Amino acid sequence: MLNTLLKPFLRDRFLHVLLLLGVGLSFFQPEKIVQFSQFVDWSTIVTLIGLLMLTKGVEVSGYFDFVGRKMINTISNERYLALFLVCAAALLSTFMTNDVALFIPIINEDT
Known about the structure:
Blueprint: H1 2-11, H2 13-26, H3 42-61, H4 63-74, H5 78-95, H6 98-103
């Protein structure tokens, strides 16, 4: 199981380059290494992790597929469907930021 979790990180060359770059740049100011954890806003990270877990849970439950199929069956014209999705994104962005609205997928491309 641990191998399954680590496999994407072991194959990601861009991540390796960034890690090497970070280690190399940390030699220029070694006294700041102990402060690295203070540079991260951990409450934001925890909030984003919670949002992604919630979204994944709703996706696994099949609710997004249900809503997507319901919208496709109700709105038969692609132009009206696109207009509805744009208006729904505009409405959602009034209550939450745009990046959060984009994190919540409504229609799966496989449908």
